[in-house]
UniProtKB/TrEMBL annotation:
The keyword Chaperone applies. Residues 553-626 are annotated as: C. Transmembrane segments: none annotated. This is Chaperone protein HtpG. Belongs to the heat shock protein 90 family. It comes from Paenibacillus shirakamiensis. Molecular chaperone. Has ATPase activity. The keyword tRNA processing does not apply. Residues 1-341 are annotated as: A. Keywords: ATP-binding, Chaperone, Cytoplasm, Nucleotide-binding, Stress response. Homodimer. It is found in: Cytoplasm.
Length: 626
């Protein structure tokens, strides 16, 4: 029998293929099953134009058969089959896809979409097999042929016996070595799991013999093994079903089956888009945070299918970082796959899909916020931090998408409030959206800096997360209103009469404050009379872009940039302490120095900043006690 040679380039290409296109060996099964499914699809197309053929969906199947003794794995289909010419042209020429030509000649209808396009998938069989034998009989023909190849050595074709039309792809599985386990491709359970993973939604049944055990007839304790043929794939992808046919339980089951999470999702989003880009998607907002969510180990992404075949487990490009908590899958016919189907070309389609998905997620979250506040707050407690990171990232470029989704606890009843709610209940004379920062709501409530704004009856957002203030800065403002820290210089509130010092008093205290400022040189940039304090004697505020809270966050970072806020020590001139300061200024400078140091350290403590020299601080307290 004449042995035909692959062309030189083909030989190299095949070597390259086998060794480098695919990173995972197990996908050989996906490729062969996809080919089998394509072959059956082609029957469907042929039946459309050939009156002698009837396409009865139920009579077509794909069978995976294991023979452990002979180390063979057979993938059998009842599709169109190949004649001698096809075997030569389609399997003898690498990168020639009979399926692609077929697809081009037959426009896709009714969701019968052919998968093959590159003409290389078949050769992935050589990743696990020493010898590949193809026995095929075309549906329109009487003769069967056998194609045999050991890979790079070329192939032979001869006449063969086969009753039914269709194709058997018989792989002689390589022997296992110390490094490589090939036996797994002869293991029923392993094969089933590979089929489930990649080919669950192939629309023809994928059948396999299943070994189980049962009680022997007539016996109460003796078991026997038996085999029966069962279907491995679930065939109908739920995302192709009509939304009205599906119940909330169906979605929840899908979420659990797919192992997106072990919790109950807060919401599902089922998309069937057939506009500029055609795709289906089922997305979920998880009900609780995955344990590794806020760690580097967490990988975002959606499962990506092309025509029901899994292409990628986690396609990161489909989700922006701020929606990285979303789980689910996308299936599209219009993707430009690369040859291994492992990575996608960064194409327009994918971008369109991800833009589309982003706006769907946003509108669904807004819907949840409106219709089911409790669930939204539950969601927000888990993933709000990620949304705020999103607002802050890329210099606020995504604020339009996210600003209506963020919330903060506010001084009004310590409830969550959105920016929209805050602004809509602002009294007319309130210029700014006020916020205060601190480690917890309880601590913020006690901050002296909040006194004046709170006295005025203005609502204050309580910022307890280290990202919060950065996010607000990135947003700049909301609906024409700018954000204002209660610790910032100008609060935009006219002080009441009782706070105003007369010009003489102000002149008098200026000398005192200048003196104190000198004592605190390098620590604060100014000491001044406070306009915001009511009952407390002292507080720190900041001037300029960097607030004290931001200083804390920035300095806690690993590469500690040592950024300092421009701090101002504010003294409540209505407080009795101020009278003592004045007294000491006139009669006892040493005492004033002591008071200045004490007040400064108290202000630091209130802010949650470390006292630079705690021993000296306690000594100072002792000094005033004796
Ligand atoms: N089971 C089969 N029945 C009928 N024809 C087949 C079968 N398997 C492969 N072929 C033919 O061989 C060709 C080459 O198959 P191969 O898997 O290499 O490429 P493909 O499926 O066209 O593209 P891709 O690389 O994208 O999978 C197919 O296009 C098809 O014409």
């Amino acid at each position: 029998m004449e042995k035909k040679q692959f062309q030189a380039e083909s030989k190299r290409l095949l070597e390259m293929m086998i060794n480098s296109i695919y990173t995972q060996r197990e996908i050989f099964l996906r490729e062969l099953i996809s080919n089998a499914s394509d072959a059956i699809d082609k029957m469907y197309y042929k039946a459309l134009t050939d009156d002698d053929l009837v396409f009865d969906q139920d009579s077509y199947y794909i069978k995976v058969i294991v023979n452990k003794e002979q180390r063979t794995l057979t993938i059998r289909d009842t599709g169109v089959g190949m004649n001698r010419e096809d075997l030569e042209n389609h399997l003898g020429v690498i990168a020639k896809s009979g399926s692609l030509s077929f697809k081009e000649a037959n426009q896709s209808k009714d969701g019968h979409d052919i998968i093959g396009q590159f003409g290389v998938g078949f050769y992935s069989a050589f990743m696990v097999a020493d010898v590949v034998t193809v026995i095929s009989k075309p549906v329109q023909g009487t003769e069967a042929y056998k194609w045999v190849s050991t890979g790079t050595e070329g192939y032979t074709i001869e006449a063969a016996e086969k009753e039914e039309p269709g194709t058997d792809i018989i792989l002689t599985i390589k022997p296992s070595t110390d490094e490589d386990n090939y036996d797994e491709y002869l293991d029923e359970y392993r094969l089933r799991s590979i089929i489930k993973k990649y080919s669950d939604f192939i629309r023809y049944p994928i059948l396999m013999e299943q070994t189980s055990s049962r009680l022997k007839e007539g016996s109460e304790d003796e078991y026997e093994e038996y085999t029966e043929e069962t279907r491995v794939n679930s065939m109908v992808p739920i995302w192709r079903k009509n939304k009205s046919e599906l119940t909330p339980e169906d979605y929840e089951n899908f979420y659990t089956e797919k192992r997106y999470g072990y919790d109950k999702p807060v919401k599902h989003i089922h998309i069937s888009a057939d506009g500029a880009v055609v795709y289906q998607a089922i997305l979920f907002i998880p009900g609780s945070i995955p344990f590794d969510y806020y760690t580097k180990e967490y990988e975002k992404g959606l499962e990506l299918y092309s025509n029901g075949v899994l292409i990628m487990n986690k396609c990161a490009d489909l989700l922006p970082d701020y929606f990285s908590f979303v789980k689910g899958m996308v299936d599209s016919e219009s993707l430009s796959l690369n040859i291994s189907r492992e990575m996608l070309q960064h194409d327009r389609q994918l971008k369109l899909i991800s833009k589309n998905i982003e706006s769907k997620i946003k509108s669904q979250l807004l819907g949840l916020l409106k219709e089911d506040r409790e669930s939204y707050e539950q969601f927000y407690k888990s993933f709000g931090r990620q949304l705020k990171f999103g607002v802050y990232s890329d210099y606020g470029a995504h604020k339009e998408v996210l600003q209506d989704l963020v919330m903060f606890v506010s001084s009004q009843g310590k409830q969550w409030v959105t920016l929209d709610e805050y602004v809509s209940r602002m009294p007319e004379d309130q210029k700014y959206i006020y916020y205060a920062t601190g480690a917890s709501v309880e601590r913020i409530e006690k901050l002296p800096q909040t006194e004046m704004v709170a006295d005025k009856g203005f609502e204050i957002l309580y910022l307890t997360d280290d990202i919060d203030e950065f996010a607000l800065k990135a947003m700049n403002g909301y609906k024409d209103k700018t954000f204002k820290s209660v610790s910032s210089g100008d609060l935009g509130i006219e002080p009441g009469d009782e706070q105003e010092q007369t010009p003489e008093e102000a002149e008098e205290s200026k000398e005192l404050f200048d003196y104190m400022n000198e004592q605190l040189s390098g620590k604060v940039s100014k000491v001044k009379a406070s306009k915001r304090l009511r009952s407390h004697p002292v507080c720190l505020s900041s001037e300029g872009e960097v607030s004290i809270e931001m200083e804390k966050v920035l300095n806690a970072m690993p590469d500690n940039p040592n950024i300092q806020a421009d701090k101002v020590l504010e003294i409540n001139v209505q407080h009795e302490v101020f009278a003592s300061l004045k007294q000491a200024f006139e009669h006892d400078k040493e005492k004033l120095n002591l008071y200045t140091a004490l007040l400064y350290n108290q202000a630091l403590l209130i802010e949650g900043l470390p006292v630079q020299d705690p021993v000296e601080f306690t000594n100072d307290i002792c000094k005033i006690m004796v």
